[in-house]
Amino acid sequence: MGVRRRFLNLIVDNDVRGTKSLRCINLDRQKFFDDTPSPARRPNGSGSESEAGLREALKLGRITLPHPSINFEACGSVLQWSIDCFPLGGGRNKVLCADQSGRAFLFDADTRHVVPMPDLNAPKLSPFSVFVPGADADDDGSSLFVMERYPAQETLSVHLSHQFEAFVYRKLTNSWSCQLLPPPPFVTDPKYWHGRPKKISSYGVVGSGGWSICVSVDGAGTYCLDTVKHAWSSAGEWTLPFCGKFEYVPELQLWFGISAEDRRCLTAADLSATDSPPQIVDSWMELETPDEWTEMLDPQLVSLGSGRFCVARFFHTRIRTGDLCEGSVERYFTVVTGVDVVRHVPDGNGSINGHGSASSSDGKGKLGIIKHRSRSHISYGRDGNITAVF
C-alpha cells in the first residue's frame, strides 16, 4: 500500500472581495475516517430520500477551520477582483495562485515559502488545471497545465493559444517558465463554431506513464494532449463518464471521478484504452441529501492515495426565519465525506471479506466502497465559504 496523505487543503473565501485563504486540515485530528465504517448506498435511480437518510444528512459532524496558512489578495481592478488556485499534485503540498490579470505566485504550505512565478500569457476566465510530475526524482520537467473551461473559437491559423498554457519547472535553473500550448482540434474546427462555447466537462491524466492529459468536451468528443510533445489528438466522439477532474489509483488500476450521468455518485472506470469508449466498473452514492439542498458548485474529488478519497459537495439552502413577511436566512455549506475503495477477495466459502458494499468484478477481485464520516462547514455569506479542496 502506498503512502496516504495526512492533510486536506481548503481554499476559503474571506470577507473582503478578491481575498482568499489556504487552510490545511490535519486528517489525524479531524476524523473523516474510522475503523467502523458503514457501507455506501447504491443509487436507486429515483432521487427520492428516505426519512432515515434525511435525518442522517442533517446530523453531520462539523469541520473546524484551522488558522490560515496564508491569506492572499488579488490586485485591484476597476472591473473585478478574483484569484484562482491551482494545486500541484503528486503529494506536493503546494498551490499556484493567479489573479484576474494573470499575475501568479507559488506557495509551499510545508515550508511557508512564497515563490514568484512568471505571469500567465493571458488571464483566464474560468480555468482548470492538471499537474503532471516530471519523470525524474528531482522534479525536472514537472508541468502545471492551465486551460480555459469554456474555450473561445479560434481560426485554423492559430498554432499556439493564449487559452492553453503550461508552467514548466527546470531543475538546472531552479525556475519555472510559462509556455503557450496549441489548442485542441475542436477549438479551430468550424463545425463546432455554432452556439455557445463548448465546455470541457472532464479532465485528468491517462496512460501508464502519465504522459497524456485527456479532456472530454460536451458535444465535441474526447481529446488527448501529449504532455511531452505538446500535441493534441482526437480519441473519439464519445465522452468520459466523469464530471470534473478524475484521478488514477495505481493500486486498483482504475480511474475515479464524480459520475457525469448522476452527480450524486462516485464512479470507477477503466481508461487504459483511450482509443475506445471507457468501461464503467461501478458507481456508488456516498452521501444522501435533503431535496431542499441546492448544489452550488461542481462536486470535487480528492485522492489521498491507495484508494482513499475525500468527496466534497457544495450546497445552498434558504431557511425561513418566521412568517413570509419576516424573510429568510441563506445558508452556504460544504460537506466532505471520507471513503475507501477496496478490492474484496472471496474467502473459501465464496463470501466477500471486509466492510462496505461489494460490487462488480473486473477479473481482479470484487470492487467495493467503504463510507466513513461526513463533516460539514456552514457559512451565512461570502466570508468562510469553502470553494475548493485538494
Automatic annotation (TrEMBL):
UniProt xrefs under InterPro entries: DUF1668_ORYSA (IPR012871)
Positions of region (Disordered): 34-53, 347-366
Secretion signal, residue range per the UniProt entry: none
Name of the protein this chain belongs to: DUF1618 domain-containing protein
Composition bias type Polar residues, residue spans: 350-362
Biological source species: Eragrostis curvula
Pfam families: DUF1668
